[in-house]
Amino acid sequence: MADLDPALATPTDLNRNDTKTAGDALNIALADCYALYLKTKNFHWHVSGPHFRDYHLMLDDQAAQILAVTDVIAERVRKTGNTTLRSIGDIARRAAIKDNDKDFVKPDDMLAELRDDNLKLVERLREAREAAEEAGDTATSSLADDWIDEAEERAWFLFETAREG
Ligand SMILES: [Fe+2]
Asked: Are 36 and 121 within 8 A, CB to CB?
């Protein structure tokens, strides 16, 4: 993150160096949320086969859950004195979750890929939570517990849904 433009400073009692570290980690996790959101929607739109209805509906629920946390994460970054994402390019530069632009992906491969991506997001969220904790930003770290729980739940559903027999 570049030095904060003074015009965008927001009030906080927390140490600015510490919140900058936490803000950077949150912005990375936020970029991964957007990458995962769009991939989940992509698979919602393109899933096929005998489990179409189940998978299509589950992926829509998961996409909505992911999208709902993005605003909360971005606003935690602003409330703690930092700036957040500004563009699709900004997301692409920070996200670790890779695009899948293939024409056809088998339904089981979709579920496996999303499960791994959700677990990757859990790692990023834990890093952000840790940084927030070190900054004394307990509001972010306690919210992050819910974001982590939801991502673990998505990974669990994706795992069980893909299980044979
Ligand atoms: Fe839809």
From this structure: yes
Contact 80, 22 (CB under 8 A): yes
Q: What band does 9 get if pLDDT is binned at 50, 70 and 90?
A: confident
Q: Please give the distance, rounded to the nearest whole angstrom, from the Cα atom of residue 123 to the centre of ligand 1.
A: 28
Mean pLDDT for 8-32 is: 89
The Å distance, Cα 39 to ligand 1 centre, comes to 13
Task: Determine the distance separating the centroid of ligand 1 and the alpha carbon of 61, expressed in angstroms.
Answer: 9
Find the 60 Cα to ligand 1 centroid distance in Å: 6
Measure 41 CA to ligand 1 centroid, in angstroms: 8
pLDDT at 2: 58
Query: Helix %, strand %, coil % for the chain, to 5?
Result: 75, 0, 25
61, 81 Cβ separation under 8 angstroms: no
pLDDT at 36: 98
Judge whether residue 1 has pLDDT over 80: no
What is the distance in A from the centroid of ligand 1 to the CA of 148? 24
pTM: 0.94
